[in-house]
């Protein structure tokens, strides 16, 4: 309107502007420069490319992390260790040796318990005990002990070997259990470390996702700001096209010169017109100032966007540096875990080697101990055989002495008969016998009775029958008052023969001492028989009670040791008695069941009662001997 009012050149109206779509001479479409700029702006901005680059590492983080691979390797190593332990737990040489040794031991035990000769001797021993034939009891007992000494020693040795192997097996089982517990603790610790690593990796991945989402949000804000800048720039370009290229300031200057001339001329109508035109142009200049303000504002927004982009770039560089450091730390952790895994495998291998060496050492020690026990048992068997040989020689010597005494007694009997015959020939009446002759006959009867008891103890039946006939003859002579069945000797008794008779009579106390020693040995044998009988009754009750094979072997071993202790007591071998008693106590201490402990206490009470009875019998016998000497 100002142009029409003041006659100024008019600008084109908005409806008269050139169309937005422009065609070239050939009729092809040519987009305006603003649309070209907008199309260029719609291409992927650098910030979007940065966001895409950020999202790509996030996707890589979501893939299997190195820590998961490390956890898998740790689990694989644990599986290998378990496999190695499983191979070690398979049949070890010591267990195979134990299994190979138990089978022949059971066969030997069955052969020992089913020995027909031993069963027959035990039946004979029971019959002799029922009949009270102590001489037969002693003979059968010696044979039983000889058989059991030859058969029972391997059984006792194998029982000791079985016990030693059982203890070694228990110790190895305990060590294997400790090893399995340690491996289980190591496995749990590895799983716990792996779980912690997984949690840490998940937390880092979650933080990365959150940071990526935050950066994406910031990118969307930045893109909105850039879009606003482009819109403002487009509006400004549109306004500039509408206003044209002519500045309003030149027109205002020309109008001001006209206004000055009109003021000088005093043409108030021209003044009003020029003033109105100037005001219109000034209003347009005000719009220009607003545009410049908007331009400054847009530039300021662009500067802030640039600064924000630089800040985002810096944060992105920091994030990349942080990710690089985290990857490096994860790699270092993985290397440490691999080194730790190698150390654990080496430690497990060393433990397995140490255990194998320990098992070999234990096996060697066990073999040495068994060899030492076998040697000790061999020495004990040799000693027992030597002792039996000494006792046999002693019995032969006593038998020879008894035979010698019988021959001497026959000689004495002949001398006495000849002397009595001579006295009877000297007596013209032939009756009665003198008092001296009667006293000698009575003394001879007593001597024959002692010889008879000794012959019966040695089981010399012919000698005993001869002594019995002589005793009856002498007693009939005393009753009849004259010598019965006495024939005249071919020659008279010489002085040498009378001297021998006196020497034999003087040797009577020594022979009586020998008889007392034999009597004490017989009583000791009776004590052994009582102990054996009690042990056999205990074994029968044990077998009837249905105890295990191990319990029967235990009681059998104790019975054998009790017999050995009784023999050591007879030989006055106090050190052997103490050693055997310690071995018996150690065997009883190894008893585990209440029934076995009760049987042990019962046998101890029975043994104490037998020893008490034996001591009482010894005391009574010593009292009788003392009274007899008085």
From TrEMBL:
Biased composition range(s): Basic and acidic residues: 12-27, 157-222, 283-327, 597-608, 615-630
Instruction: Report the protein name in the record.
Output: Uncharacterized protein
Biased region (Low complexity) positions are 328-367
Upper lineage ranks?
Answer: unclassified sequences, metagenomes, ecological metagenomes
Coiled-coil annotation: which residues? none
Region listing for Disordered, in residue ranges: 1-38, 153-222, 283-367, 385-412, 591-630
What species is given as this protein's source?
A: seawater metagenome
